[in-house]
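Entry, Tuesday afternoon. Goal for today is a structural model of the target with thiamine diphosphate bound, before we commit to ordering more compound. Inputs were pasted exactly as handed over by J.K., no edits. I checked the ligand SMILES twice against the vendor sheet because last time a stereocentre got dropped in transcription.
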Amino acid sequence: MNPFVKNLANAIRFLSIDAVQKANSGHPGMPMGMADVVTVLFKYYLRFNPKNPSWINRDRFILSAGHGSMLLYSLLYLTGYKSVSMEDLKNFRQLNSICAGHPEYIKNSGIETTTGPLGQGLSNAVGMAMAEEILKKRHGSDIFNHKTYVIASDGDLMEGISHEAMSLAGHLKLKNLIVFFDNNKISIDGPTNLSVSDNYKKRFESYGWAFHEVDGHNEKQISKAIKKSLSSKKPNLISCKTIIGFGSPNKSGKSSSHGAPLGEEEIKLVRKKLKWKHKPFEIPKEILNEWRKIGEKGIEQEKKWNSIYNKKNKNIKEEVARIINNDLPKDFDSKIASLKKKIFDLKSAQASRKSSADVLENITENLPELIGGSADLSGSNNTKTKYSKIIKPSNFSGNYIHYGVREHGMAGIMNGMALHGGIIPYGGTFLIFSDYCKPSLRLSAFMGLKVIYIFSHDSIGLGEDGPTHQPVEQLAQLRATPNLNVFRPADTIETLECWETALKSSTNPSVIALSRQKIPFVTETLSNKNMSALGGYELKKTNSNSEITLIASGSEVEIAIEAFNKLKESGINSKVVSMPCQELFDKQPKEYREKIIEKNSKKISIEASSIFGWEKYVQSDGSSLGLKSFGKSGPYKTIYEDFNLTSDSVVMIAKKMLGK
Ligand SMILES: Cc1ncc(C[n+]2csc(CCOP(=O)(O)OP(=O)(O)O)c2C)c(N)n1
């Protein structure tokens, strides 16, 4: 390695080991091992502009092995991003520091995504590479033509999600994806041969990837492999043979350098070995200047891109700006209003998954940024419409992705597309398999991404497929996730309203849980207000004195209405509250919440799901109808009866509560 370039890499090494030492926690081994690779990448290839981290055509750089976060923070500081100062590096891992233990996505900061959970960054990168291909096809290869680079570790490639995402990337021939595999053969428990003997070349070639192998400390080899990858027709894995903790006389090549400070004495030895004479956090001028020059190259690159973009016709510019700014089309509200009227006039009794299909059928044509898909359940989730055109290998003109049976990969990829910008991803599976999406879905919420999860077959109401497929605890788990809206609409009007709310939620993902079984049309008056956006609202009321409040969601609103009618016949005043989204209801002003769920009315909740979480509405003298066990196999009506989820049970409980 050229000694000057080596010293550029050493700047990363020492910032990393000194910050970890100061914090007395962190992972020095990986930044020490991969410093040479990223130096070559940033110096010669990566197109980025630290002065405008959001430049839409920047190359994406993702650190999937997020535990090596000091590698990323060092690079951001060295290349001149405003987001990371020297003071921030000194505050690594301290409260409220941008230099968190693992990268946490912050818009416009240079941190492209949240990683740390191994494998996530890899799947995000596949989503970003797909987004680039889709936008390129639509708006021109002169304005969308970037690469997506990833650093992945042994752990990343061991995780199941990597198999799902890499396999799909190979199938789709995502040629602009370049993964550097930090092949140091060390993980936490020791050498990786304790647990893995995969042949990576064969593995990746069988996915349809190009496989390259380099010495990760050899500038020429690294550079040559990148150059080759740039003209490849396939996604690229560059396996970089590296030494974890490179430069540490006693800890390099050992798991002891992976996740703990090297110690003052060892750091002295590293300084000696790498001939680095500078104090902690001191970067010599000529090194810092060179790094800053590397960053400044991007200003010119973006300028050039701007001049091409500015020459595009007005319509393309307006459309690109609209999708990048996450704005819905101007006529979106009026289209929703006329669709609402149409739905109200039709009053169709149908499964809410069918209602969702109707909504999609009407909005996909005019919302090109909506990219749908399903994990091999398109016909069951009803995610595919007549306007859905399949995205195929090397042909990204479509708007629908067959993810295959890869729920976790789908969720991670959707995050990547949302992070890229210009796309609103939605994807479907059964609610029960939200469990298989959960780690990535959690990160959608954590990062505040507009990702829409369509989870059909949302209760024991799916019937004959039985308890393996019947979600019980899933809604409660999802509702426990911060910054996630969980919708469960009761009819087609609510389904439209939930979709509308999800599409307008710019800082959180949404789950729309949908029934397999047919449900009635329950909306009584056409409101131009989005009632579901209130989270819960009064659907029916005998008069102003409700002795009983029946709170239900989705398919169980039907049971609540039946019970309401039976109570009325018995001379008992009640009301039905439809609660399609608890999270939004909980955000309403106290006066509204107390008007809907009155203190002096006895409350009963009805949901064909775990009763966990409903206590907050029914309170200690109320009652919750739902499940306390797993479901059962059989025709759905008989299962509801078996679990006492009937209007007769509701009436009996209500009468008992009132002493009647
Ligand atoms: C999903 C997930 N499981 C476990 C961990 C904890 N963890 C962090 S790094 C790591 C493995 C370290 O080995 P490797 O990926 O090879 O990284 P290196 O030692 O080369 O830095 C593990 C198990 C994690 N971050 N994410």
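The longest helix spans residues 285-310.
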